[in-house]
Structures are given as C-alpha cells and as structure tokens.
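Still learning. Any example?
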Amino acid sequence: MFPLKRKNQRSKKWMAYALGLSLLAPNVLAGSVFAAEDVKVKSVEFVGMSAPATAQDMARVYSSASVHVTYTDGGVKSFPLVYKTLFKSTDKVNGTQAGVSVDVYGKPVMDNSIPSNPVPFVSDDPDSNSLLKVDGAAPTGKGGNPLSSLTHYEYITTDNSGKSAYGLVPASMSLTTLDQNKTTGELTPVDLKKVDFSGVGGLWIPCNGSLTPWNTHLSSEEYEADARDFEADNSKTYVASFAKNFFQDPNKKGNPYAYGYIPEVTVNKDNSTTVVKHYSMGRFSHELGRVAPDSKTVFFGDDGGNTMLFMYVADKAQDLSAGTLYAAKWLQTSDENGGSANLQWIQLGHATDGEIKQYIDKGLKFSDIFETADKDTEGFTKIKTYPSGKIEWLKVKPGMEQAVAFLEARRYGAIKGATAEFNKMEGVAINSKDKKVYVAMSYVEKSMEKDTKGADPVDDIQVKKIKAGVTYELAMQGGQKDSSWRAPSIATM
C-alpha cells in the first residue's frame, strides 16, 4: 500500500527551479556535456525569480531567473535564463511547415471550408518537446552537435471559416534536427520532417510526453472517444471525421478502440523514426506516461473528469510491449489541503501489445464486451466514470476479461473497485534519487469533492475544492509482490 499525500507548498524559488531546468538543458551545459574539454561542470545552483505580479507580466513569456555554475577548476559563472523561440508551428523549417496536419500518405490535410481558398490545416497548439542526443547521428553541416527534438501538435482550434476543428483533424508530430553550438550551446533548427504514423492508424489528440531512460519518446493520446456513444451513433464522436481525414476516404468510419494509447517513438541514427503504440498499457485519456528508474514501472496522467490513477509494470526492463495494468483505489486519511490517502493497486490484467491489437483488428465493439442495464439489476455493477460521466450499469461478457481490461480500462477498473473520481490529472514527475512520484491535479473540484446529494455509486474522494490544484507525493518502494493476474485480486504496494 502506498501512502499518498499532498506535497507541501514550495517556495517561489523552488517553482522557478523547475522552469530553470527546462531552459537550462539545451543551453548552458551544452558545451560541457558534449565537448571534450578538461574543465567540466561540478555543480549547478538555480536562482529563482518572483512570480509575475502585474497583468502585463502575466501575459508575456519571460524569465528573470538564473543559474550559478561551478566548474572543476574552481571557477563560477552566472547565466541568465531566457526564452528563445526556435520556430512557430506555422513556420517552415527546410521547406516543411512545422505544425501541418498530414494524412496516411504524408500529404497535408486540406481545409476546404472556404472552397475558393483551400489551405492546409496547421496546428496552433504545440504541446510537449523531447530533446534527444542520438548516438551516431550525422553532423548537421554547421559544425555543432547534432541533436533531435520531437514535438507534439495537440490540436487545431478552428478551420479557415472560423468553425471548430478540435478533434476532427488528425494530430501530428515533428522531428527537428538541431545544431547545438559547441561553445554557447545555442540551438538552431536545420531540418524538420513529420513523423510517420501511418503504421498505427494515425495519431489521436496528443498532449504531454516524456523521455524514457533508454532515450525514446513516450507520446500520448488523450480524451479517448466513448465507444458506447460511437456504436449508437458515430456522429457523436470525432472518430469518423478523424478517420476520413487521415485515410482520405469518405467512407471510413474508424474505430474508437484504435485510439487512446501511449505511442513510443524511437529516433534512429539515420534520422528516421520508428513508431509503435503500446496497447498493453491500456486505453484511457493519456496525458503523459513517466517511467520509473527500474525501466519497467510506468505512472500515468489521466486527463478529464471522473478519471483514474493507473500504473503499468512491464514484463521486461526497457520493453513496454507486454505487462500488467493496475488501477488505484483511494483510501482517504484526510480531507485537508487536497487530502491524503493510502492507495491500493487493483490488478486489471496482463497482455501483450499484439494480443490487444488483435481485438482492435477484429472490430470488437462496446456491445461485444459489455451487457448493459438501465437500473439496479442483479449481476450488474453501477459505475460512473469518464468518458460518459453518467451512471452506467455494466456486466462484462464471458471471455472478454482481457479485452475489457485494456480497451475499457477505466470502466473495468470502476467495476473492480478502483477510484474513478480524479479531476484533471495532468502532470507526473519522478524523483529517482528520493524514490518519489509526483502527480499534479490542475483543479481539485467536482468529482473529487464530497457527494452531498448521494447520487454517485461510490464516493472515495471527499476533499475540499481547490481551483489552483495540488501536487500529490507518492513514495515508491522496492521488492513489491502481487498475486497472479489471472485471479481477481488487489495488489498492495
């Protein structure tokens, strides 16, 4: 069992440290990390900044933070931290528009909302960047270190006529080749190309991402479509429009169970990319997956309302193609300051990517997995969870236990007793040294508050509303065991 508690508020200086780290990585340390020099960095001290106090400062992107770097020769230098724009999603790098949406053939998806003025769909919401150093990568031709950057383009807000295009157009990712100046660390984009998702049916709405310990990028697909709604009327979800635009086929209806996973992207030394979707990591609103130091355990953000805290344990280190999926039950110990709880990890099932992909390829539907009722009925479990956010009465059909555990991870987790009451779970970070996991909630409200009407099936989380959100701290412990996934069980860690 894991104790989960709200992390005490840190100082403004600490908050600025996290900001400084993100700015420092491609900038100040570059020459010492990659250049063969006798003098190396001994330590780095981050010096924070005050939070912006005026509306003008709140509206601009800036930093007055700095770092003090101590070198092995005893020298100390101070570096101001500044933002530098590498490119915008509308910019072209070596002829390719960064945020352009592309179809299965790699061609721009066209916005024909104004027939006389067709233009490519271009994302206005870049979200997540991973900076990689790929061993054996070819020189850039500019004399610096060759680095690679993967960027998510989460969505396109409107079409050319001003109508909403959110979720209707396939998302995309770009791979940028960067030249890193060996003296100053300055980054210059020299090439950009779109990552090919044709082998996995396209990229659903991506949000945050992370680097694995083995130098690959974990992407995300959030706000998975409701397969129940899709089966009843596919116009109620974005799936059909997404599929028609990606496959350039007006007859495509799509499959909701094909999206809502963690894609893993490998950048190869020849500047090509390899993309796989990890179906065995479960289908839910993947904001982000973060790998623990054992290179097997992954903690997730699950964005939205009435969501769930998941954990995945891979069979083998540095291989996320097979493993066991768990969902947490919140056992509350306090309702103060965002609340504290012990967590029980409920085992949902074990699978390989290939096993779950077979269910998708067979065209499995919601009604193939569940029986439904419309009131309290013997044999049916009453639940409430995302994506429907409504009360449902469900029963898993015989033989569908593995399919439901991964295609409907949140619904099945609720049936098994896991807590489906988290709200806007977006950030996950791991402190390897102290063996702590941090889970950030953007807003503590709604499903996390006490159910005063007694309308919900369960009410595990009963904390006070905090619109500013909280960060929870979770202590990792080694040597944990659980029972066979084949038997119904609750694993405690």
